[in-house]
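Box 3.1 A note on notation
Throughout this textbook, protein chains are presented in two layers. The first layer is the amino acid sequence; the second is a token string describing backbone geometry. Keep the layers aligned when reading.
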Amino acid sequence: MKKLILTSILSLGFAFSYAQGVLTFEKTTHEFGDVKETGGPISVDFKFKNSGDQPIIISNVQASCGCTTPDWTKTPVGPGQTGYIKAQYNPLGRPGQFNKSMTVTSNATEGTTVVFIKGNVVPDAATVAAPTDGSAPAVAPSMPMPKVTPDPDSTASPRSKISAKPNNSIKKDVAPKSKSSNSNSSVKKTTTSKKTTSKTTTK
């Protein structure tokens, strides 16, 4: 009798241990293809079905980086029911190829399941495609400024402009001096002649 009771308990425990929910995803990888860098966040829903005989509870979904935001069904998913795991990716400032993952943790038989999103971000016209090592995108070089040839008249110094005119004025100033010197010599000759005349008269 004791052996029969023990066997029944073990059978029930064995059956209970295998009575779990089963996550069955329609797909575990999504390819976005080419997306615009400035087109805004992109998202996809990974739909699943509970193929087991016990409710499934999604306890956590962990993204591989901060650029991916997860969301999921928060209520228990009963046998035969469906739920979703949502992945949202922000391509702004992340040109080039991307491959991100999200780890789904639940009480299903699998325990953890990983889903993936992939694609290629087409850079905006103001940026150059960055390498896929995570470094920042390079900014396109700006157009060179055209060279301006200075006007020769505008580059001349004020002193050179002023010094070019006084030459004529200097010549004009010199001319009167020569006349005054001639007049002085004539005065001297007149005085000398007067003295000579006076001497002749006294004799």
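DSSP finds four helices and eight strands in the chain. The beta strands are 23-25, 29-36, 42-50, 58-63, 68-72, 82-89, 96-106, 112-122.
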